[in-house]
Amino acid sequence: MFLGLTGFTASGTAMVIAGELPGLPFAVGGATAQVAVAVLVGTLIYARSDDNAGLLRERLATAGRIYRRLWWALLAVLVALAAYALVRLIMGDPWTLLTAGIIGVLLALLLRGAALLTRRMSEAATHEAGHE
Q1: Within 10 A of 32 (CB to CB), how many other CB atoms are there?
Q2: CA distances from residue 74 to 121, 127, 132 in whole angstroms, order as listed
């Protein structure tokens, strides 16, 4: 999946360099998605990397906070891309709406995943606290 995201970023960047502003959502959204995937996976590995119960609870709580911040960051990028697409549509460019919609679906899925992981990490930290 990570390599597929590179295609969005690279093609969007190439379009912007060529003066095609409809590529901006691909460039920004693709780069955001790449960072989000790295944070999601890295944080999950960090959260589950120790067997010490006290440390595990602390790591799960930290992971929940990271996922919550990631959720807000993804939401901000999604809203910014939607606003940009709307402005470009008003200016007479419907293609930006298409590219923002395509990358928006991917960002929305990552947003949903970050919300789910936030909830699961919080539940796991609470569960671990009950086992001490």
Answers
A1: 24
A2: 18, 28, 35
Q: pLDDT averaged over consecutive 10-residue blocks of the chain (132 residues)?
A: 72 90 92 92 83 72 89 96 95 92 94 89 74 56
- Which pTM was predicted? 0.84
Per-position b or e across 76-113, b if 16+ CB within 10 A of its CB: ebbeebbebbeebeeeeeeebbebbeebbebbeebbeb
Phi, psi angle pair for 100, to nearest 5°: -65, -35
Rounded-to-5 percentages of helix, strand, coil across the chain: 90, 0, 10
Nearest CA to 111 among 82, 53, 72, 59?
A: 72
d(CA 44, CA 49): 9
Are 56 and 50 in contact by the 8 Å Cβ rule? The answer is: yes
